[in-house]
Amino acid sequence: MSDATPPLRDRFWERLPLEQLTRPEWEALCDGCGKCCLNKLEDEETGQVELTCIACRLLDDETCRCSQYPIRHQFVPECIVLTPKTLRDNLYWLPQTCAYRLLHERRKLYPWHPLISGDPDSVHAAGVSMRGRTLSEYDVADEDWEDHIIEEPT
């Protein structure tokens, strides 16, 4: 029995509904921008969500990936596990450029997405990622988060 990961099917994101993706295909949709790992502020009255440059303590600012992804819930129990089912309930906080959001809304991936470009660094080269732009949640007091609201890099 082999432990090898099965290959990704050709242009699977264009042909298959999210519910039919394999685990490796689902994970490959992540462009590595790091924006979903930014802390957000939600206005309780309007429901409007604002993005901050304050990152989850597990986000690696250089790679824009979770430094403890397989065991992240040991450190951040409230981290959302995104699945086709949970996607519907969590769409409001996902970045506008997020592949999961785009495909759920039946839109195309951007040309800089690594699945399109073939380059895992294309998201950084396009200036869409949070590489080098974040502050750790350990370094900013909760009451100061409003001072760090940003516009989403697109």
End-to-end separation in angstroms reads 43 Å
Percent of residues in helices comes to 10-25%
Main beta-sheet strand count, sense and barrel state: 4 strands, mixed
Low-confidence stretches: none
Rg estimate, integer Å = 16 Å
Structural class: alpha+beta
Distinct helical segment count: 7
Mean pLDDT: 92
Which strand-content bin applies to the residues? 5-15%
Query: Looking at the structure, what is the overall shape?
Result: globular
What's the order of the H and E elements?
HHEEEEHHHHHEE
Number of domains: 1
Report the strand count. Answer: 6
Keywords:
single chain, 154 residues, alpha+beta, four-stranded mixed sheet, 13% strand
Summarize the structure.
The chain is an alpha+beta fold and 154 residues long. It has helices spanning 12-15, 23-28, 72-75, 84-90, 99-104, 114-117, 122-125; strands at 38-42, 49-55, 59-60, 65-66, 135-136, 149-150. The strands form two sheets. Strands 1, 2, 5 and 6 form a four-stranded mixed β-sheet that branches. Strands 3-4 form a two-stranded antiparallel sheet.
Tell me what you see in this structure:
This protein is of the alpha+beta class and 154 residues long. It has one domain. It is built from 7 helices and 6 strands, in the order ααββββαααααββ. Strands 1, 2, 5 and 6 form a 4-stranded mixed β-sheet that branches. A two-stranded antiparallel ribbon has the order 3-4. Strand 1 and strand 2 form a beta hairpin. The protein is globular and about 45 Å long. The model has no long low-confidence stretch (mean pLDDT 92).
